[in-house]
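Complex record, two chains
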Amino acid sequence: MPAEEATSPSEGVQVNGHLEKSSSISSEEELFDPMCDPENPIVVKFQDVSAAAYKIRNGIERTPCTKSVQLSALTGIDLHFKKEFLQQTGSFKERGARYTLMALTKEQQKIGVVAASAGNHALALSYHGNQLGIPVTVVMPIIAPLMKVNLCRQYGGNVIVKGADIGVSRSHALKIGKDTGMVYINGYDHPHILAGQGTMGLEIVEQVSDIDAVVIPIGGGGLIAGSALAIKSLYPSVKVIGVESERCAGFTESMKAGKVVTVGAQSTLADGLAVPTVGVNAFATARNYIDQMVTVGEEFIALAILRLVEMEKAVVEGAGATGLAAVLAGLLPELKGKRVVIPLCGGNIDTTVLGRCIERGLAADGRLCRFVVTVSDRPGGIAELCKLIAKLGVSLKDIFHERAWLTSDIFSVQVKCVVETRDKEHAEQLQTELQRRYGNVTWGPDFDYSGPSPPHPLLVSSSTSCQDQDP
Amino acid sequence: MYDPNADLLTIEQISGARQVLQTSGLCHHTPLLHHVQTLCGLDTDIDLYLKLENMQNTGSFKIRGVVNQMAHIPDSAARGQTHLISMSAGNFGKAFAYMVQQKGLKGTVFMPDTAPVNRAELIKSYGLDVGRMPTSELQPAVDRCVRERHMHYLHPFDDINLMAGHGSVGLEILEDVPDPDVVVVCCGGGGLLGGTAAAIKLSGRSNTRVYGVEPEGAPSMYESRKAGKPVGVQVKTIAAGLAPPYAGPNAYKHNMAFVEDVVLVSDDEIVTAVKRLFSRGLVVEPSGAAAFTALMFGKIPDVKGKKVVVVITGGNVTTQELNKICG
């Protein structure tokens, strides 16, 4: 698409040389992936899934699908988890990746495949490409963490870091495919990928009997397409529920519109689900098998991660925890007393992000609290506050006080605290006590930041949303 | 490296920046229109001067700051060994892209995915890489590229060298009208306002009052002045160039030291001003018209019988956009 005012930069000043050509792909043709054509969506068939199951049976983990005693008790649901985070590279993506690689012709296998991904698809392809002796090239954007780049290379993938965002990387990958003959593999919409992902659905119904419902996270839609197809073909009475992050609800909007539409994607803990345009094949295949769609908020995703660590001893990434998040958010009350299977799709969570999720989860749980009170600046003022906190059995994690910007009274100081409480009730008890003693208490995450260095207000609270920043 | 706690600008820094700009040949001494109060439909007892930065190279004042900012990058970056990176969907991005291309360097710009596609295409047309992503991911993405890919980050509005470059506007104003009573400047991140005010005050004009103008929907500096420290705000305004989500700490410091006050104008008022200026032969983008808007709607105090300089900061608006805005 030509730029509106992409005039040459000369503007009256003599420029050395000519205007450099845009680095992006200009031709419409080169951006086309024939296997994911919006004009000709492919509906995957059950026999594709069973063929995939047969072919990949020796190469992927038949992961456990077991009942969670603690979380069943907590939720009142007969809850089973399909533990896909236990796959070698940490996610279910291996199923589709391995099957797609095995389904290539001998000639295609010699030349190899190319993809654009900074995530689980890249890892899965790299690993199985190496296992099967098929060259795998992955294009990753410059914003992909170095750790992911190195991990893919470790698994044997040929990683090219190119593109300021995943869209540009994708264009590059498609171009490489066109120039070299490598097959471009869309990680959530290639029909063989869908068939491969569907093998998880087959395993679920083999491992658990009398299932009432499955709750499956949706990013590009590949997993739910294959799995819903498999499950409904064998047991049409099983209810299939799709879950998305409310920060990127592409499938929900597409279902409403009756066709694939693009949505904005905001930052989300479930970064594996941040796909603005769902797959056309995935949509065509899945839409008739999905009984219900829900979207879930960030705090419940954090809570789900926390619960899975504490109660299931499972390290699950945001995207993988969305199914449980929907249950914890109370979005699926009708599942009480029913037998439900939820896949824990992946465990590739950044350790620092995990730390933050645990904190956010604790905050959502009422076990980590922030507040600001104004106390006397005289000797004993802070001590009294600390005594109040300690008397309630609350643990003080962080305390920060400042004087300069308080306008009320020069003998007062504003104190900001982060504390640990047992649970929500305990937190409420603390809040009440503080209110009684200090009158004005600012409680919660959304007060003014006043640290020593400028904040990234964009990141201060998940509820802050900023539009139109254009310095 | 970007330092959020830089010292206040000195007149030497600003004149030094002016020298750099003049040597580069990339910035003009833009026109200052004299006695245009009647032309602009204002009260005849205001002696109005318009500083036309919409006529600047790249269509806004931003190039001034960028030229000086680029003169202070580390050697490895100047030699092209280190990749340059910044974030902006607006005029800074355009000026930055222009400079990167001028210098034959490599650069990347991250922009919010809410920005119109033509902005991305424009910057790409200068040969830079553009990445689009949710707003909240911009800073982490930049940080990661600096940390892991050793890129050099140019802060789009709060860098002290950027502000010194912008300050050249103040010096030029004083050359063309040595004794202004009031100077009114649009305020986004506050870099232009801070640099210009510093230039004017440090040139000995202690009696000149400098005002900043922000949209009501993006009052970051206004709120910062109230709070006594730089703060962030939720932003929503038609004047996209004046809507960073927080006031820059360096800009805030300069604001408190050199600026009389910051006043607010509504989006509707801005649109009226844009139309008025357009009908008088000036193409001004909404962000660029904020200062004029404040004067037009009587928000600047004590201007009767005074020499008032208003800075028109940019004209990067397409005919389509003008049509849409003005109806």
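Note: Chain B has a mean pLDDT of 94.
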